[in-house]
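[job 4471] stage=fold_predict status=RUNNING
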Amino acid sequence: MKTYSILFMLVFSMICIFSACQHESKKEGATTLIQSTSGTTPNMLFKEEKHNFGTISQGEKVSYSFGFKNKGGSDLLISSAKGSCGCTIPTYPQEPIKGGEEGKIDVVFDSDGKSGLVEKTITLVTNCKPNTKVLTINANIIIP
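[job 4471] inference complete, writing structure tokens
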């Protein structure tokens, strides 16, 4: 009699575990299915991700606009844009960029106090996957 009780408990436990695992995988599959068939994630595609200002004079302020397009099916949101130092100031759209629409990231670089070959970055945080994008600017700064 005791053997049957243990066997019953073992079978009952296995059924419970199997049911829980099967239920969890169904939930994951449903989520994946929704994401893969809807095609609604935003996709930020830049015309170029690097810009070289060439040779500039120390103290000169130069600017450039990085153009991009949202190739995804839902609104693209940029939550922040930060330069790698205080000399690199980015400006970005505060409003959502709809699927198929274009936007730009404006960057102003102040070469005051800098010399030689310089490389700076702008890090964007968005609702895309992956959620960060890094843009790069370069300049050769000469002292007049």
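[job 4471] summary: The first helix runs from residue 2 to 38.
[job 4471] exit 0
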